[in-house]
Structure formats: structure tokens, C-alpha cells
Amino acid sequence: MEILLVEFVPGIHLHLRLDALGALLAATAAVLWVLVAPSPGNGRRYATFLGLTFMLTLGVAFAGNLLTLLVFYELLSLAAWPLVVHDESEEALAAGRHYLAYVLTGGTILLLAIAFVTLSVGPAPFGTPVDLPPVGFVLLLAGFSVKAALVPVHGWVPRAHPVAPAPISALLSGLMVATGSFGMIRVFQLGAPTPVALLTTVAALTVITGGLVAIRTDNLKRRLAWSTISQMAYVPLALAVLDVEALAGGILHIIHHAFMKGGLFLCAGLLLHQLGVRRVSQMTGVAHRMPWTMGTFTLLSLGMIGIPPLSGFVTKWVIGTGMAQAGAWLSLAVLLTGALLAALYLMPIVHTAWFGARAEGPRADPSARTLIPVLAAAALTVLLGIGAALPGFPLQVARLAASGFGG
């Protein structure tokens, strides 16, 4: 199904296209936006831009060619800026300037790349393989790498996440970073004309670097941000294997990571709001005061590590199976190392919260209504794990989307 939006000149147009890959991103966005829906206290500006970013994410999901993807992708980047700087503190405004510098640079690279590709092979509609020129292919990947937070263009993530409101951090980690990986998948579906060893190297370096820095980061939201950098690099790592099963796992990881990491950031927001906790070193014994919040945080952390039967295990199993089938043993080793690093930066938080000296004070879990989003994220992490093989679940749709790899 395709819809023409506007034709600038013959052959150069914006249009929308429905396929399995776009439907997965759109469905994930719809559920995640419900979980982070604004409260009346956040104000009209917050609600307006939150709704706008949702609509633009749908535009990214359903873009039918490179030019359409660029338009919605860049508008999404700009619409997210007021949410990043929502608190209007000096730190937030500085992080916002940093964010804009990164995304506008990436957007400029994408504009040049898409102009080059369009002049070379035409509008490059998704679903139809084209003979991408190598220079255009590399420039497209470079442009999308900024939003995907690959090393060395990852710097906006650990600065923007700590200053943004927790629900916005959930969106930034759950879907904003994912749109960069989504763009890379679209490029590969058009065709991969050059060796992808460089992408493998960059993705592997990102997995390891993000995990190592997360281990020694005390600020809780910044640690989770570095986790996002590490975890989301699984997608280009899987993509570079050039195996359908690995790609299906990478697509699946976008969905599963969105709910796991989104839930973790929401938990971090509750800890900050209820107890003023910003740092891991302040979390000694907090589980005794906020057992529901930390119980959810613990389950989501186990999911991020890849403990069965949670959704994170399914992701890593499918990616790893594809890597093994393709003989990509080095990539598989990086995947397993990333899981080990996740245990090293998440489980100390859990241990400190549950087994540290009991924190003094009354129970501080928020109301049941406030807990619903984090409990829903945890429920999805369980459901998407134990029900992964069921018809119509994301794994089946991801395999359908990956089956059209390379046309």
C-alpha cells in the first residue's frame, strides 16, 4: 500500500508505504507513547511536542523512499529538541545545543548523500533494490550513525538523557536512537554495494565502549544512556552480518529494547521524584522503600542482560543464531561480551538497592496509577519473551520484514 504525498518534479516525490518493517516501528511507537503519555502538570508545550514527535515517528516508519525518510527524520530530530530542554536549566540548554549540533550535522550528511543517490539512481523507493553507488552508501550510513549513536558520533546521548524528563529519556532511548538503526536497515534493503567490515568494527567498538563506560558511571540516567549506546549497537552489528536471521533479530531488538529501556528510565524517574535519587551510590537499600519500583527495575535489568524467558533473551538468541549460521564468530563474541557488560553495569545497581543497608523512612512507591507504565513495560518484557513464537508476535513480523532483505 502506497500513498503519494507531493511530487516536486517528475520522479522526485514524497510518499508513504506500508510494510512489515514500518508497521513494527509504528506499533512500538504507539505503545511506548501511551506509556509516557503526558500528565497535566507537564504543560501544553510538553504535550504538543510529545504528540508531534509521535506523528513524525510514524512518518519515519511509513516513509516510502529516501527523500521522504529524510524529511520526517529531520523534523523528528528538531521536534524532540524542546523536550530535551524542557526543564530549561543551564545544563539542559547546553545539552540541547550539543544535541542540535550532532543531529544537524548528521542531517546535512544525509541530505548530501540522498541528493547524490537520487541524481545517480533516482528516488530509490524502498522495496525495490537499486544499484547504490558506494560513496552514497557510505554517506547514508554515516548520516544515520549519528542518531544511532555509533562511536565516535554518540556524544549527544549521554548528555541529553540525564537532563531530559524521564519519559523523554525513555523515548530517546527507546525510539529516537532506534530511528538511526531503522534508517540503516532501509539503506541495506536498497542494496549493500561495498564490504561492511567497517560497520562491523564500528558497531563492535560501540558495544564494548558503551558497556565499559556504563560500568564506571555513577549518575543513574547517564549509566542507562551509555547502556543504550552499547545495546542499540547490536542492530548495526547484526545488520553487517548480511544474514536474514541476524537481521530479523536486529529488527526485533528495536522493539524489545524500546520497552525494556523505556521502563528502566521510567523507574529512574520515579526514584528521582520520590526519593531524590540521581546516582547509583545513593541507592543503598532503596528497594526496601520502593519495592514495586525496584522489583520492576530488577526484572527489566534481567531482560536487558538476556536472561530467559524474557524478551531480551529472545533478541540475543535470534541475533546470535544468525551470526552462527553466517560464521560471524567475532560478531557473536561481541554480542556475548555486550551481555556480560550489561550484567556488570546493571546487577550492581540491583544488588545495592536490595542488599545494601536498609534505607530509613516509610514506603515511597508512588500510587498504583503512576506505577502502571513501568509495570506495563515489565509485563511486555515477560509477554514478548514467553510468547515470542506465537503467530502475529513481533518475532514473526520481524522475520517477514527481514525476508525481503536485498529485495
Structural account:
There is one protein chain. The chain is mainly alpha-helical. The protein has one domain. It is 71% helix and 3% strand. Strands 1-2 form a two-stranded antiparallel sheet. The longest helix has 32 residues, at 90-121. The model has no long low-confidence stretch (mean pLDDT 92).
Helices, by number, come to 16
Q: What topology, given as strand order, has the largest sheet? A: 1-2
The fraction of residues in strands falls at under 5%
- Mean pLDDT over the full residue set: 92
Order of helices and strands: EEHHHHHHHHHHHHHHHH
Helical percentage: over 70%
Number of strands: 2
Radius of gyration: 20 Å
Based on Cα principal axes, name the global outline.
globular
Low-confidence stretches at least 5 residues in length (pLDDT < 50)? Answer: none
Largest sheet: 2 strands, antiparallel
| Distance linking N and C termini | 17 Å
What number of structural domains do the residues give?
1
Structural class of the secondary structure composition? mainly alpha
